[in-house]
Write a structure and sequence with these properties.
The complex is a heterodimer.
Chain A: H1 3-20, H2 26-41, H3 68-73, H4 82-105
Helix pairs in contact in A: 1-2
Chain B: E1 3-11, E2 21-26, E3 31-38, H1 43-56, H2 64-89, E4 96-105, E5 108-114, E6 118-123, E7 126-129, H3 136-142, H4 148-152, E8 173-178, E9 184-188, H5 190-193, H6 198-206, H7 210-223, E10 230-238
Antiparallel strand pairs in B: 1-10, 2-3, 3-4, 4-5, 5-8, 6-7, 6-9, 9-10
Helix pairs in contact in B: 1-2, 6-7
The chains are: A mainly alpha, B alpha+beta.
């Protein structure tokens, strides 16, 4: 490899290292790498913006809490509250006691 | 457009029951790759196959830097899918693959990699390693604490520091290289270079057609014991008609 190419590759590896250590953001990483590669290949640098390396599978929907799909996913049955359960048990116990007293004292 | 001759082969080797390596060749867009799965049978198989399948679907834009971006995106997508799949189906065990990709066009190319699968370029009788292993011993070599020869026989020689599926944030390294007619390239898994010495790889790569060279490299690894799966892709840059 000639010196220009060695220099380019050293810079590409250093840029990736920076990106790996969060020293540079994803969009900036892509922009600078495109510039470096295009400068060497002689091709024009793409003008369309790039948001950086994708981190989700291609085509995978981004599910947020406001997304109806997310709401559907979270539509599990509601659990009964502990207070309601206690009141129900008290009513049953009171009814049982009243029935027992009626049976004994009648 | 340059003319390419290539041969892609993968072999289970002698000691392993399954082949967790995978290879892909898409000469129409100038893309070749080797992936070496890890995580055991099924996990490793799935990982390397997912990597090569994703690479086979990459399209070729006019701008080479965008081509590099798109390959990187494909690998990042597989990385995320593997992480999800591993936590769902394999109780969080590591499920991944090393990968080395060669992208080529008239006059130049790019190497993208994660892990210790390698790309070499043979020009004349000079064999040059284009990729640089993501491994513990390579870090020691880079720091000047270990020589290349010592690294080859180091007990931690097979401990890698990066792979597709290895961590939630995958960073793929990229380097560029020039191509002249007559150059030969070799992409391979560690099952080759751990069995066949560098001089043996160079001499085999120099001789015969790409098909004969690829088969001889596999045969050489098997003759040396082939403790691991072995994969090779030999690509030759021919002069355009």
């Amino acid at each position: 490899m000639n010196d220009t190419l060695k220099q380019l590759n050293a810079e590409l590896l250093a840029l990736a290292e920076d990106y790996s250590n969060a020293g540079v953001g994803a969009a900036e990483f892509r922009r600078r790498r495109r510039e470096m590669i295009c400068h060497w290949t002689g091709q024009p640098t793409p003008s369309d913006p790039d948001n950086g390396p994708a981190t989700l599978p291609a085509g995978a929907p981004v599910v947020t809490v406001d997304d109806p799909a997310a709401a559907e996913t979270d539509s599990s049955p509601e659990k009964p509250s502990p207070l309601g359960l206690i009141i129900l048990l008290l009513v049953l116990a009171t009814g049982g006691l009243a029935s027992l007293l009626w049976f004994v004292l009648r | 457009m340059a003319d390419w001759r290539y041969c892609a082969l993968t072999d289970r080797g002698i000691k392993r029951k399954h082949n967790e390596d995978a290879v892909v060749a898409v000469p129409a867009i100038g893309l070749w790759a080797v992936a070496d799965g890890m995580g055991g049978h099924e996990a490793g198989d799935v990982a390397s196959t997912m990597v090569t399948a994703a690479l086979a679907k990459v399209s070729r834009p006019d701008n080479f830097s965008v081509f590099v971006d798109q390959v990187e995106d494909a690998l990042n997508a597989v990385n995320q899918t593997l992480r999800d799949h591993s936590s769902r189906e394999f109780e969080g065990r590591v499920m991944g693959a090393t990968v080395v990709v060669m992208l080529a066009t008239e006059g130049y190319g790019a190497c993208l990699w994660a892990g210790d699968s390698r790309l070499y370029r043979l020009r004349g009788d000079d064999l040059e390693q284009i990729s640089r292993d993501h491994s513990q011993v390579q870090r020691l070599v880079d720091a000047g604490l270990l020589s290349e020869d010592e690294a080859e026989h180091h007990p931690n020689a097979n401990v890698i520091t990066r792979a597709v599926g290895g961590s939630s944030h995958l960073v793929v390294d990229v380097v560029m290289f020039d191509i002249v007619p007559g150059d030969r390239f070799l992409l391979c898994s560690d099952g080759l270079y751990n069995e066949v010495p560098r001089d043996g790889i160079r001499d085999t790569l120099m001789a015969g057609t790409v098909d004969a060279a690829a088969q001889s490299l596999i045969d050489g690894a098997i003759a040396a014991g082939a403790r691991d799966n072995v994969s090779v892709v030999v690509v030759s840059a021919e002069a355009s008609a």
